[in-house]
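Continuing the batch. This is chain 6 of the set; chains 1 through 5 are on the previous pages. Same settings as before, nothing changed between runs. Recording input and output for traceability.
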Amino acid sequence: MPFILNDRLELYMGPDGLGAPDNLEQVIVDFIDQAEISLDVAVQEIESRPITQALVRARQRGLRIRLVLEQDYLRADNPPADPFAVGGEDEENRNLFAVLLRANIDARADYNPDIFHQKFIVRDSGAPGRALLTGSTNFTPTGTGGHGSRKNLNHIVIVHDQWVCNEYDREFAEIWQGTFGKVRSRHEPSPRNNRVGGITVRALFAPDHAPEMEIMKQILKARERVDFAIFTFALSSGIDDALVAMARSGVKIRGIFDAGQGNRDWAATRMVADNGGEAWLASRRNGLNKLHHKLMVIDGSVIICGSFNYTGPANRLNDENILVIGDLEDDDPEAQAAQRQIAAFALAEIDRMIAAHGERVPLTP
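Output for chain 6:
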């Protein structure tokens, strides 16, 4: 079961096929099925047939739908001799893209020269009941744990708040106009603190708001511990240095990395382990394909989540988003209690992933 705060903020951890509490594909389908006016979708890829069917149903109900995808999953890097022949890598993505076009959905492939890495939907823009869905999962069977044999660990956040949705509306408008990534030339307003369900929620977009600096700032506020689950975490991202500094000051640092990414020479795994942190690799066992989270919990009270991997390109070049849920400096006792409740849900999933999939990274001899 998800964590739901005052019917305003929902946090889901999945997929249930790997022992997590939630079916992420169904969460996305339900979110789409509840739309009444419009859907603005910005996601790296769509390979899930149930999600595609939900979008088609929405269009058939008369909703306005705008969709932007990463084009790398639609084109062939090695074109076949006969391009009219069906098949090849990512063929399901191309099939479903054609379905969306045949349903008269306004669907576009991005023209960002780097990576369009967003994963969000704004539902019913401009209406009182608007809502946002975002998180780490791509809309694929692997990403959501849908009908594929391989499964990735991911999270989804749903926010019912007009001001947060306004920020994603602006981001989507810029994406739709093609002024995102490093081609953006306009001035961006600073991120604002929004009150959702009684706690602070802050949205940031890369490369505009440099999420890396925000994550480092939040880490440096820690007094007790920092726990995380990260797909790609590179050395010299700046975040690794902040974690090492806090570990040396006595703050407990514990994180689980995807094994395929965390074993690389450029990964921060060994640096965390060698400087007093507790580092784990999520091994490919019990049906796991990848640990795909971009999730951090600070002092059991603040969550950082979204699409943002902890790398330089994610910060400088890619189109990304993060949510910071909670504020360590909030002096409202009710807000602090609510923050700890939702953070405990995320922390419990990190505990479960370590227990089910984790292999401890030893200190260098």
